[in-house]
Structures are given as C-alpha cells and as structure tokens.
C-alpha cells in the first residue's frame, strides 16, 4: 500500500477544519464583504445549508468505495484510461492549489511582516518543512493538526474578547437593503474558496479508522469552519466597518491592530500572523501530500515520497507566476477560480457518482478499530 498510516476520525475532522480556515481565514472577510457588504455574515448562514448538500454528495461517493481514494475508484468506475485522465487532472489541481496557497502566504509575509525579504526566499524556506511534513506522512500531519488546533481557536477567542469594547453593531445596518440577492451572490467566491477545495479529503477517507463516522465528522467540522469564518466576518465588519474591511487585503490582520489594552499590550497582529501561518502550514501540507499520493496511485509507484523533491521545486516555481499581485489574486478568486474549483469539486465527482449508480458499483468497507 502506498500509504500505511491511519488517522482517527477526530484527526480527520480537525485537519478538515484547519484546511477550511487556512488561507480563507484572513482573505475571505474582504472577499465576501466586497460582494455582500454588511450582509456578508448572512452569506455564511446560507452557506451552512449548502454544506449539508456538499457533504451528503461527497460522502455518498466515499461510502461506495470506503477503502479507496477518489483516484482509485475513478479507474474502477470509468475504466483504466479515463480513470488515469481523472487522476492527472487531480494531480495538476492539487499542485496548482499548493502553489496558490504558497503564494498567498508569500504575499502576506512580504507585504505585512518581512517587507524587505524577497518573496522567493519566503517560498523556499516555507516549502522545506512542508516537504518534510509530507515525507513523514498522514499520521504525523494529523497529530500536528491535533496539537495546533487548540492554540488557533484559543487565540482567536482571546482576540474577539479583547475587541468587544470596539464592536459597533450599528455597522451591520441596514440589513438586506438590496434584498437577499447580495448575500446569495457572496456564495459564488465562497463555493470555490474554500468549499470545493475540500474535495481533497476524498483522498484521505480510506485512511480513517472509523469510516462509518466520516459523514458525521465531515459535516460537524465543515459547518464548524463556516461558523468560525462567519464570526470573523461579523467582528471585522462591526469593528473596522464595511469600507475598511472591503479595502483591506488581510482584514483579520488589520483587525488585530485595533487591539490595545492600556499602554502595555498592543501590536498583537504579529501573533495573528503566526496563527495564520500555522493554519496555512496544515493546508499546504495536505495539498502537497495529496498531489504526491495521487501521483503514486496514477503511476503505480511503490511510494509517494519519490516525487516530493521534484514536486516541491515545481510548486516553488509555479507560485511565482500564478498571479502578479494581491489585486490580481482577488480578481481571480472572485471571477474564474470558483468555476475552476467547481469542475473538480462538483462536476467530476457528480459524473463518478452517476456512473457508479448506473453500473451498480459498490465495495464493502473494512472497519478498522
């Protein structure tokens, strides 16, 4: 077997939560507020209902082939050659997603933290632990996510509490001045980033110890990430206001700049940057790991570790050309990217599920204690 590691159902859920809030936690507020304005928080409420449908759809496919990744049962459903084509499509998607996430990190560090450090240097330095994490395998990534999650949640709770004195709920008014269509429009970038990206977890379902509980934990942590993001958007709007949140590239980072307790506790935005880097680490590690794992299954390699070094170099190079600046990234995320992500997250799994039902393909699960 290409990957012999196993993760608990809790680790699966935690990794999904960390993945969902990864780069989205600091970028999503400005993106959604730019579309839905002060009603951006309503977009996330609507999205929670959408999450039920997405999880039901994906788990229906995973339950039919509980011991296989989406790469493996693509060949089972569509045949060897069409299945290989699907595998190649997902390899390119996971590599491209890795490059996008790395570029998001590079833009943040080079514009907000280390402004005189060359961005390429940041990419190289950060990819080294990512490659090492992928080399160590899924179990290590799962344990690391389990250890890091409490710190992420704790700090954001503390940040919210310290900002309570600055919250002004009047900035949420008027509610729905243009009707429900604006919050609904806000769903478009959200579906692509990060919801459709979660298709990556169909690469991990065979390695979960309790496959029968996947849907429950998938749904729980998927909705949990949506609620977490909704709270961040709500706090951003009520503290910074719609105009400043919309114009800020990294609104949560700017939000942390507002924290001042007396004259001795301020400038905590660097800590926010550190917490965000933690979530980015988990997301990028999973994207990069999935690309290598998918390659091993498509080309029948004995180990997924063979491609780690060349893929690492490809991701570093690709990250420098995916877009030219944060403004172009914003245009891409709100324009073409959701369609690109939906092709991988909805269209391909939809075809696989329909064909599997027509051909009545299904295998029995092997429960692992």
From TrEMBL:
Statement: the UniProt record of this protein carries the keyword Cell wall biogenesis/degradation: no
Example of a GO cellular component annotation carried by this entry: membrane
Membrane association type: Multi-pass membrane protein
One Gene Ontology biological process: spore germination
InterPro entries: Spore_GerAB
Location(s), subcellular: Membrane
Family: Belongs to the amino acid-polyamine-organocation (APC) superfamily. Spore germination protein (SGP) (TC 2.A.3.9) family.
Protein name (record): Spore gernimation protein
């Amino acid at each position: 077997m290409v990957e012999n590691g196993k993760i608990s159902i809790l680790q699966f859920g935690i990794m999904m939560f960390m993945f969902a809030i990864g780069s989205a936690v600091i970028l999503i507020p400005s993106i959604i507020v730019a579309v839905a304005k002060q009603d951006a928080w309503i977009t996330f409420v609507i999205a929670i209902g959408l999450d039920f449908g997405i999880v039901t759809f994906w788990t229906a496919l995973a339950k039919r082939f509980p011991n296989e990744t989406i790469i493996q049962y693509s060949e089972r459903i569509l045949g060897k050659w069409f299945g290989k084509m699907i595998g190649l499509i997902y390899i390119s998607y996971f590599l491209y997603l890795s490059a996008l996430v790395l570029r998001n990190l590079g833009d943040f560090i080079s514009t907000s933290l280390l402004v005189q450090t060359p961005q390429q240097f940041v990419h190289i330095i950060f990819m080294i632990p990512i490659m090492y994490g992928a080399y160590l395998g899924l179990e290590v990534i799962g344990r690391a996510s389990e250890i890091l999650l409490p710190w992420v949640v704790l700090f954001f709770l503390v940040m919210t509490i310290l900002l309570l004195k600055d919250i002004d709920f009047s900035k949420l008014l008027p509610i729905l001045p243009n009707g429900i269509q604006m919050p609904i429009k806000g769903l478009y970038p959200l579906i692509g980033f990060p919801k459709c990206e979660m298709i990556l977890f169909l690469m991990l379902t065979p390695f979960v110890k309790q496959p029968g509980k996947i849907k429950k934990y998938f749904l729980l942590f998927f909705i949990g990430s949506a609620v977490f993001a909704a709270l961040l958007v709500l706090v951003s709007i009520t503290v910074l206001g719609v105009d400043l949140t919309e114009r800020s590239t990294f609104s949560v980072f700017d939000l942390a700049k507002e924290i001042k307790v007396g004259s001795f506790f301020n400038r905590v935005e660097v800590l926010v940057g550190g917490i965000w880097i933690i979530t980015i680490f988990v997301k990028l590690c999973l994207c990069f790991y999935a690309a290598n794992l998918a390659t091993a299954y498509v080309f029948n390699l004995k180990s997924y570790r063979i491609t780690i070094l060349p893929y690492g170099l490809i991701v570093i190079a690709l990250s420098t050309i995916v877009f030219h600046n944060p403004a172009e990234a914003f245009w891409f995320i709100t324009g073409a990217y959701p369609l690109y992500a939906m092709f991988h997250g909805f269209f391909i799994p939809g075809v696989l599920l329909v064909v599997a039902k027509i051909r009545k393909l299904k295998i029995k699960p092997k429960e692992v204690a």
